[in-house]
Each structure stands twice: as structure tokens, then as C-alpha cells.
Amino acid sequence: MANGQAPAPGAPIPGVKNIIAVGAGKGGVGKSTIAVNLALALKEGGNTVGLMDGDVYGPSIPKMLGNDDRPQGYAPNRIAPNEAYGLKLMSMGFLLDPNKPMVVRGPIVHSVVRQFLSDVEWGALDYLIVDLPPGTGDVALSLGQTVPITGAIVVSTPQDVALIDVQKAVSMFRTLNVPVLGIVENMSWYECPSCGNRDEIFGHGGAERWAGTQGLDFLGEVPIHATVAVGGDEGKPALADERTPEHVRKAFFNLGGAVREQLDKAAALQKPAAPLIQIEGLDG
């Protein structure tokens, strides 16, 4: 980015109303779990939703959603996305042998991101959720260069060591002129299924406090629970798994509501004010 200027984004994807990037400053904070269940929460709210796996090197969406079919091409440079649980999906994991590493340089990564955005027939979507790889590398930059991003969500756990890297992710989105919709605290607490006791394993409230110091919105807390991990391994994400306890389901649905609220606020701010009409001879 020469002279510190963010790259100008390309044209919007036809039919896609909102593109939401889900990122994290470091791995291991449950970013993909948040992205998948946010997409499902928005879909359950009556929206059409797509989910793009932006983690070119370590795609996890096929495993988490139980779909590893190879997408079908039906015209030159036109790819039909896979579908699972009512979501339209695209991932490098659909195209590669899962036992072989993706060993490519930045320009190839940029080409992959561009093709996932422009060559996939996403159709009419209210939301396209993009699950970014951890960190601040090529994929986020390529995404920002290719399409206008409506907003970004940054995922953290409560610990200070995770929040150090959140600052880097937030700074990256700001450099790309992408509005940060807010921060999510994942693995916020654990509720004992037997006694209902709440245990704050990794501490609690760190992400909310940090968001307050930065003038960022806090989008909510998501608890840790074994069924979330087990279901993800089995291709049954939390909101599609009947074993998921109600307090976990509620947290994801609340997150979906918070994201919609942030987007509504942003849209209202961009809407031009109605012109002031004055008729001569009439007093206010």
C-alpha cells in the first residue's frame, strides 16, 4: 500500500447486499466457529446467506459443515457453490486433496480470492460471510482490493495475550478503510450441565473492556461448550445440532441480532437527509 493509502476496492458482487469479514489477530480463538454459526443465525432470521472460506492454506469450512463435494462448473469461469444447512459455500477445501498442503505465493492467493468472489455464482444474498485466516496477511488485503467490504467482525478470547493480537486485526481493517462492526468474545465462560455453575475458564470480560477503550462496539459473549467442538468435527455446527444447549444457541442468535443492528445503524448514517422544504408565507 503505497504512501499508506488503502487500495481502492473493486465492484460489488451482483446480487450480494452485504459482505462481512470475520477475522482474528491469532489462531485458536474459534473464529471459524463464530463465522459458521453467525451465518446460520442470519439464515435462521430469514436471510439468504453465503459463506466463503478465505483460509486458503487451512480451510475448515468443509469439515465443519459436513460437505466436501467438488463444486460444479456450468459455464466458462462460472462455478456453482456447494450448499449445506441452507448456506451457499465455497472453500479451497472443496478443490484440493485434504492430505496435500497448499504451497503457493501471494499472487496465487490473490487469484484464488478474486475467483471465489467473482467467478462463483453466489446469486442473490443478503449476507456473504468471509471467514478470513488468522493474522493480517494476503487474504484480507486481496479481499479489500477486490470488493467493497460492508464491515468486519474481530473475534477474541478473554485473555490479554489474545487481545494483543486483536489490536493488529483492528488496525488492519482500519488501514483497509473497512468499518469494524465490533468485537466478539468467544470461549467467554463454561456452564456446568449438571449444576449450572458458571466457570470463567479463560477469564471474562476482557474483550468487552478492551473494545470500550477503543471506541468499538461489543457484539456479545459466546460460551465454551463441548458440543460446539464435537459438532464441528462431525459436520454439525452448533445451531444445526440438537445437542447444543439453549444458552449456547441463544448466544449465537444474539450475535446475529447484534450484527444486523450494527449494519442497520451504518446504513442509516449513509442515508442522505431529507431536504428541508420551506414554503414562502408559512411560518414553522
Notes on the structure:
This protein has one domain (11-270): 3-Layer(aba) Sandwich (Rossmann fold). The strands form three sheets. An eight-stranded mixed β-sheet has the order 5-6-2-7-1-8-9-12, with helices on both faces. It is 35% helix and 20% strand. It contains eight helices and twelve strands. With 284 residues, it is of the alpha/beta class. The relative contact order is 0.18. The termini are far apart.
Q: What value does the average pLDDT take?
A: 88
Query: For the CA atoms, what is the radius of gyration?
Result: 20 Å
The main sheet orders its strands as 5-6-2-7-1-8-9-12
The CATH class name reads: Alpha Beta
The end-to-end distance, rounded to whole angstroms, is 52 Å
- Give the helix tally: 8
Return the domain count: 1
CATH topology type: Rossmann fold
Number of strands: 12
Low-confidence stretches: none
* CATH architecture assignment: 3-Layer(aba) Sandwich
Q: Approximately how much helix is present in the residues? A: 25-40%
Question: What can be said about the biggest beta sheet?
Answer: 8 strands, mixed
Percent of sequence in beta strands: 15-25%
The run of helices and strands is: EHEHEEEEHEHEHEEEHEHH
Look at the helices and sheets and give the structural class.
Answer: alpha/beta
Give the name of the CATH superfamily. Answer: P-loop containing nucleotide triphosphate hydrolases
Specify the overall morphology: globular
